[in-house]
């Protein structure tokens, strides 16, 4: 059980790196791009930022946080709430018919998701590993 969870945390960190790469590409999107250009640029990022992000946040919400329980306390609720906001910005980025709304969503998504991953890596994952006896 603990070994499975330690492997899961390793996997989640790897996925963070993939998401950081995708967010960096998002930041390179040219200002003034039209909807077709934005949609084309997003196509390559979709596997990581759509299906990948959904699976990632579900693994944290449904597997990691419940397994850690009181060890992470109220921090899990903050991360859980942020997952909802992150997915909402992501949905606007990939789904809005307005280029301006998509670009704004891209900026919001980058800031929120990068900060969210920074805090998971700095606080949540180290505490979880310590609690699980991994380090
Ligand atoms: Fe998360
Ligand atoms: Fe995460």
In a nutshell, what does this entry contain?
By secondary structure, the protein is mainly α. It has 5 helices and no strands. The radius of gyration is 16 Å and the shape is elongated.
Structure in words:
This protein has 135 residues and is mainly alpha-helical. It has one domain (2-132): Four Helix Bundle (Hemerythrin (Met), subunit A). Helices cover 84% and strands 0% of the residues. It is built from five helices and no strands. Helix 3 (46-68) runs antiparallel to helix 4 (75-95). The mean pLDDT is 93. The site of one fe (ii) ion has 6 residues, from helix 3, helix 4 and helix 5.
Give the key terms.
single chain, 135 residues, mainly alpha, Four Helix Bundle (Hemerythrin (Met), subunit A), 5 helices, binds fe (ii) ion
CATH-defined fold name = Four Helix Bundle (Hemerythrin (Met), subunit A)
Write down the overall mean pLDDT: 93
Q: Which overall shape is indicated by the principal axes computed on the Cα atoms?
A: elongated
Compute the separation of the termini in Å.
16 Å
Compute the number of strand runs.
0
Instruction: Estimate the helix proportion, in percent.
Output: over 70%
Radius of gyration: 16 Å
Q: Order of helices and strands, N to C? A: HHHHH
């Amino acid at each position: 059980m603990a070994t499975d969870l330690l492997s899961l945390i390793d996997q989640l960190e790897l996925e963070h790196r993939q998401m950081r790469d995708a967010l960096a590409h998002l930041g390179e999107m040219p200002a003034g791009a039209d909807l077709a250009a934005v949609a084309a640029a997003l196509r390559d990022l979709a596997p990581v930022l759509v299906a990948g992000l959904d699976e990632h946040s579900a693994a944290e919400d449904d597997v990691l946080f419940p397994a850690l329980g009181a060890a992470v306390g109220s921090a899990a609720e903050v991360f859980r709430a942020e997952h909802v906001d992150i997915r909402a910005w992501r949905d606007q980025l990939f789904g809005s018919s307005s280029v301006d709304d998509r670009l704004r969503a891209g900026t919001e998504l980058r800031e929120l998701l990068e900060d969210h991953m920074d805090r998971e890596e700095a606080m949540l994952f180290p505490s979880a590993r310590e609690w699980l006896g991994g380090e």
